[in-house]
Specification:
The chain is an alpha/beta fold. The protein contains six helices and six strands, in the order βαββαβααβαβα. The chain has a six-stranded mixed beta sheet. β5, α5 and β6 form a beta-alpha-beta unit.
């Protein structure tokens, strides 16, 4: 089995106070803290992930550089710098905050404009507070389809689907790597 090491940059974006930093913390160190701390500018974290593709006989060691981006408005110039070089993203909104859901399309548009057509996950966070949601599942599912994003209902507090959301992103990032190296192993030209 061939082992390949890669490092990829992803963005964690969305309005302030939707739980982006808590999701990263849950994913990277498996901890939750309900004290809200505003991210100033951007905060970066790293986590190594391993993916095995048995049919292709390829193992990918993926170092994920996670850029947790400030969610406050008025930072568009900084976003241009922060988004550069990103290859995937998780767009987070808080199901208990209608305004954060209403901003999803704007955030997705910013990604397309500043980072290009990269793949993403739409994370409806705070699913542990589902009884307080200000959006319906149908609205969320419709928007995810419209924006061509994979939908995950997450909770940084309980850990529900946090690992799955990052694994989905990792899978997106591994697809071109596996395609390239599997083609080379078979002596075929690659893109």
């Amino acid at each position: 089995m061939q082992t390949i090491d890669f490092e990829k940059k992803i963005l964690l974006i969305g309005n302030g106070s939707v739980g982006k930093t808590s999701l990263v913390r849950r994913f990277v160190i498996d901890k939750f803290d309900d004290k809200y701390i505003i991210t100033i500018g951007t905060k970066t974290s790293r986590k190594r992930m391993e993916f095995t593709f048995a049919p292709e006989q390829i193992k990918v060691n993926l170092m994920l550089d996670i850029w947790d981006i400030l969610g406050q408005t008025g930072m568009e110039r900084a976003h241009k710098l922060y988004f550069k070089g990103a290859e995937a993203y998780i767009l987070v909104f808080d199901g208990t905050q209608r305004a954060s859901f209403d901003s999803v399309a704007t955030w997705a548009g910013s990604v397309r404009e500043l980072a290009g057509p990269i793949q993403g996950v739409l994370a409806c966070n705070k699913v542990d507070l589902k009884a307080n949601f200000q959006v319906t599942d149908e609205e969320v599912e419709s928007l995810a389809r419209q924006l061509n994003l994979t939908l995950m209902f997450t909770s940084a507090k309980t850990g529900e689907n946090v690992e799955a959301a990052f694994n989905q992103i990792g899978g997106f990032l591994c697809q071109p790597i596996v395609k390239k190296y599997a083609g080379e192993a078979l002596g075929r030209p690659t893109d």
